[in-house]
Design brief:
This protein has helices at residues 5-21, 23-68. With 76 residues, the chain is an all-alpha fold. It has one domain (2-68). Helix 1 crosses helix 2 (23-68).
């Protein structure tokens, strides 16, 4: 099977290149480009949402840690 890796890769890359050079491929690239231009605002919203979730998880973990060791002994 290893001897087929290079030919399959070359055919795959050739097919992708042919698609991107076609009119349909260029239209797809323009669409992707427009979506990426709008992405920064959405990524910031996603970042804020994920940070809020992580803060909630951290608070839950802190509560669990406190409940597991309610009376820490000095020197340990």
């Amino acid at each position: 099977m290893r001897r087929w890796y290079v030919p399959i890769t070359v055919l795959g890359l050739g097919g992708i290149s042919a698609f991107l050079l076609s009119e349909r491929g260029r239209t797809a690239l323009r669409t992707v480009s427009r979506r990426f231009q709008r992405a920064p605002g959405r990524l910031l919203e996603l970042n804020d949402s994920l940070q809020s979730d992580l803060d909630g998880i951290q608070a839950a973990l802190d509560r669990i840690a406190d409940s597991l060791d309610p009376h820490p002994q000095p020197g340990r």
